[in-house]
Amino acid sequence: MKRKVMQLLLIVLVFFIGSLSANAQLRTTYQGKWSFDAPSAPDGYTFGIIEIKKDSVYISFTDSQYKFPSVWVKVRSDSIYFQTFVDGTDVLFSLKIEGETNIKG
After folding, report:
1. Which of 32, 34, 42, 52 registers the highest number of CB atoms within 10 A of its CB?
2. Which of 47, 101, 93 is nearest to 73 (CA)?
3. Across the strands, what pairs with 73?
């Protein structure tokens, strides 16, 4: 009895871990470098590049050579959500895919 419970628990754990990693997979059409413009952001953070990879997102700003990596990434239908720390500030991004060449957020 104990052995069957352990096997069932192991199977459920494997499916749970597999579903978490599948959630962070970004489609190849979204992957690449995207320029962004954020006019309401503070000076120095208004222009830059968002680099979307298979399982992570990086942000770099025009005035800086450093790439800020995402802490986590979630994909839901046509939207990408991710969090990063920019100069000690926790920043949450919400991007909506609009066609093949446009992302808004």
Report:
1. 52
2. 93
3. 82
Q: Sign of dihedral through CA atoms 11, 12, 17, 21?
A: positive
Count of domains in the chain? 1
Range of the domain at 76: 2-104
Cite the beta strand spans of the chain per DSSP E.
Answer: 32-37, 47-52, 57-61, 67-76, 79-86, 89-97, 103-104
1-33 pLDDT, tens per residue?
667 666 666 665 555 555 554 444 556 667 888
Cα 60 to Cα 20, 35, 43: the distances in Å are 27, 10, 14
Task: Name the average pLDDT for the chain.
Answer: 77
